[in-house]
Design a protein that fits this description.
about 450 residues, alpha/beta, ornithine cyclodeaminase, domain 1, Rossmann fold, eight-stranded parallel beta sheet, about 40% helix, ODC_Mu_crystall
């Protein structure tokens, strides 16, 4: 029988994936896609499901790489939020499946993977000024990606409100100059990233210097735009998928611009990278990029050692300090503390381990409640309830069994133990990097997390 899927949350994906590992594989996958070999990459155009009530849509992006044994799909929700909304404009989840059995192998956060798209092939060497139009989560992700890959002397950012610009500058950790207008941000810039929620052009060709590279990430619907006709018709336009661009990209469709090449064509050497000219890469994202990234980050894959090392380091730091120092790693710590539950005698657990788990969760809640703007979900309290229930039952049994043995390991038969085992396998608990369970009686399984 297939094992339950592994849950890998955004921070763990970020800690595992590195451009030095990912970029060669992305380029290889894009090259395979552009050769249109169905055994190498089989990827239909993204299916869009309208979410009219919420002014958005859900995109489904399946991919099958037969030769590599990779089957995956990404679920990504886009929203055209009202100005000033604190709700996310994009949410993405990648699901990795076993192509033979059909079961889900892993579910992982897709925001980092979505941001890691290969456009570096089109950038002119020696680029010094980066301009970003937009200040949302995707804008920050692209800032992190581009500044990790390249050394810019200046980074500029613009958004429609000063408050959003100031927030982005704080989040970026300094070294970013906020601009009062989009024109101010892009004039003289070598690289321009548009990652906005705009449905009308925000970047105009008359502002863009000759030889600049534009990475257009927003406007992923046929009637949405970020770039004007002048820029689209004067630049050399590259896309990730011709079929996708001609059916989904308003920038391409409404401007009537000619698509010069797919990025995979450049990788395969069938089309040149016109770096000396003004270039536009219209990035819609492709399932094959998500498939390769997910396979790379999946436990047992190429980066399995890095995932294990990250979790081990997190656990060591937490135990050494005796308190939860960083709530981003709480899930990894909780997962490791519950690992004894997964062994052959899965219902044996250490008193000290359960007490430590309770204290870690309590400290995490205490820390989170002191953060401005942070809201606790009910599942935090459910976690503490079950940990405390198990721990109290454990102590009670320990007292009764110490006379027979000096062993501090016990079988926890606390009040409603069998019921608790069932709930513990199915209850929603805020944890990360653990296997999801099934709500059936039996040895208690690991904690699952659903947001």
């Amino acid at each position: 029988m297939a094992e339950p899927p592994v849950i890998i949350w955004e921070e763990e994906v970020k800690s595992v994936l590195r451009y030095m590992d990912l970029v060669p594989r992305l380029e290889d996958a894009l090259g395979k896609f552009s050769r249109r070999d169905s055994a190498a990459v089989l990827q239909p155009v993204r299916t869009a499901v309208p979410l009219q009530k919420h002014s958005g849509f859900m995109g489904l992006m399946p991919t099958y790489m037969e030769n590599d044994g990779v089957l995956s799909t990404k679920f990504v929700c886009y929203y055209n939020r009202e100005r000033g909304s604190t709700l996310p404009a994009v949410q993405a989840t990648v699901v990795l499946l076993d192509p033979e059995l059909g079961n889900v192998k892993a579910v992982m956060g897709g925001e980092v993977i979505t941001a890691m798209r290969t456009a570096a092939l089109l950038m002119a060497p020696g680029a010094e000024v980066l301009a970003i139009l937009g200040t949302g989560r995707q804008a920050l992700s692209h800032f992190n990606v581009f500044t990790e890959m390249f050394s810019f002397k200046e980074v500029r950012v613009w958004s429609r409100t000063k408050e959003e610009v100031a927030r982005f500058v704080r989040s970026a950790g300094g070294g970013v100059r906020g601009c009062g207008s989009a024109e101010e941000a892009v004039r003289g810039a070598d690289v321009i990233v548009t990652v906005t929620r705009s449905t009308e052009p925000v970047l105009f060709g008359q502002w863009v210097k000759a030889g600049a590279h534009v990475a257009a990430v927003g406007a992923c619907r046929p009637d949405w735009r970020e770039l004007d006709d002048v820029l689209m018709q004067s630049a050399v336009v590259y896309v990730d998928s011709r079929e996708g661009a001609l059916s989904e990209s308003g920038d391409v469709i409404l401007s009537g611009a000619e698509v010069f090449a797919e990025l995979g064509d450049v990788i395969n050497g069938t089309k040149p990278a016109e770096r000396e000219k003004t270039t536009v890469f219209k990035s819609l994202g492709m399932g094959v990029e998500d498939a390769v990234s997910a396979q790379l980050a999946h436990p047992g894959g190429f980066l399995d050692h890095r995932l294990k090392a990250a979790r081990s380091q997190s656990r060591t730091l937490q135990v050494q300090h005796g308190a939860h120092q960083d709530d981003r790693h709480r899930g990894a710590v909780m997962s490791d503390l519950f690992n004894p539950l997964q062994q052959e005698h899965g219902d044996w657990i250490s008193v000290h381990g359960m007490a430590a788990a309770f204290l870690l969760e309590y400290n995490a809640i205490k820390k989170l409640s002191n953060k401005p703007g942070k809201r606790l979900c009910g599942s935090h309290y459910i976690t503490v309830h079950f940990l405390l229930t198990f721990w109290l039952g454990a102590v009670t049994e320990l007292i009764t069994t110490l006379t027979a043995s000096s062993n501090t390991v016990f079988r926890p038969r606390c009040v409603r133990a069998e019921h608790s085992r069932t709930v513990l396998r199915s209850v929603t608990v805020c944890s990360r990097g653990v296997r999801s369970g099934v709500g059936t009686p039996g040895p208690p399984g690991p904690v699952s997390c659903n947001f």
